[in-house]
Design a protein that fits this description.
alpha+beta; ten-stranded mixed sheet; 12 helices; 14 strands
């Protein structure tokens, strides 16, 4: 039966091509978009997994680069019961790197300047956002024009200990390379907070956010609630769990969008298959439409999987992380097969209603 289904496909090559293209587009989009969603979620999950503190930002800000708070809030946060260390931070997207203007469209994860209060950072029990020092030395408070670089960025830019990097026209010496499991943190350029303010045109009495380490990590949500209660009109305090829930919802919306795109493509493909099979039924009564539809579904599914996988492997070249999982691929193939079978039901029904004698004459 399957052999007949595939052989019938090649009797009308142009029709077959047009019908298969619709399925291929849908499956390619489904696999590629799912890979992007899974890749981004994996990156975020890795970052959140290493985040053992409370992030305090300006209320309503989407991320740290869009947040701006008075540094005077630090004393108020430090006075809240359960808080151990408060680290002021400045997050800036550089205008130029090595004299070249950065376009956000070049990469989903652009180089980011992370200015941190070094003396406060050294009091942390963990590594914060910086990660493990792989090579070189940690920054000191008097290291004005020295930086640490994330390993991913350092490798991409061929930087090493002692080399220099120019940011917004100012030259810096690379003092250390830090490793990270996530590309999000692997693209950080870390420096003293005052230097970051200077080259980024950031007000001296402002910060982007506060990294708040608590005395008891299991009490982080309680402490976050206290911060929100005391300073709720100005700030928004979130724990790692809060961020995880937030991004899980966002990623699920992206996943639904990917499914919607695939469904639209599948619907268009189904219409094409129905139309093509009806033509075949009228031309050759002894062919059963369902067989051809099954062949289209399988062929389109296989090609779509190959294209989708190839596209998923190519997308990271643009700085967008992807992660290919077996489950979505299997679902995509079954989806293509299902579309082909369903699209063949009506033509098959039409064929079954034909008078046998007329069918023999029309053969």
């Amino acid at each position: 039966m399957l052999k007949l289904a595939f052989l019938n496909l090649f009797r009308r090559k142009s029709r077959t091509f047009l019908a298969v293209v619709g399925i291929v587009i849908g499956i390619t989009a489904l696999i590629a978009l799912n890979a992007v969603v899974d890749g981004i979620y994996n990156e975020i999950d890795t970052v959140i997994g290493s985040f053992q503190a409370i992030m305090v930002m300006e209320k309503g800000s989407m991320d740290q680069t869009l947040s701006k708070l008075d540094e005077s809030l630090r004393a108020k946060i430090e006075s809240i019961q359960g808080v151990r260390v408060v680290v002021p931070e400045v997050w800036i997207l550089p205008q130029t790197v090595e004299g070249k203007t950065l376009a956000l469209s070049q990469s989903l994860i652009p180089p980011t300047i992370y200015g941190v209060d070094i003396s406060a950072y050294r009091k942390l029990r963990g590594n914060g956002w910086i990660g493990e020092l792989e090579k070189g030395e940690m920054l000191n408070s008097n290291d004005k024009y020295a930086v640490l670089m994330g390993k991913s960025l350092a490798d991409d830019m061929h930087k090493f200990i002692g080399s220099s990097i120019k940011l917004n026209g100012q030259k810096f010496r690379v003092k250390g390379i830090v490793s990270s499991e996530s590309e999000l943190l692997g693209n950080l350029i870390i420096m003293d907070i005052d230097t970051a303010r200077e080259i980024g045109g950031f007000p001296k009495d402002k910060v982007s956010s506060f990294y708040v380490e608590v005395i008891d990590p299991t009490e982080d949500r309680k402490v976050a609630k206290k911060i929100n209660f005391a300073l709720g009109s100005e700030v928004e305090a979130n724990t790692a769990s809060d961020f995880s829930e937030m991004f899980a919802g966002v990623m699920e919306n992206f996943r639904l969008a990917a499914l919607a795109i695939a469904l639209i493509s599948a619907f268009v493909a189904a219409i094409g298959i129905i139309n093509t099979i009806l033509m075949s039924v009228m031309e050759r009564y002894r062919e059963i439409g369902t067989l051809k539809a099954t062949g289209w579904g399988i062929i389109g599914g296989i090609i779509g999987i190959l294209f989708g996988t190839a596209l998923s492997l190519y997308i990271p070249a643009f700085g967008i992380p992807t992660l290919i999982k077996l489950e979505p691929v299997l679902y995509a193939f079954l989806f293509a097969f299902f579309v082909g079978v369903v699209a063949g039901l009506y033509p098959a029904y039409r064929a079954s209603k034909l008078d046998p004698v007329e069918a023999m004459r029309g053969a």
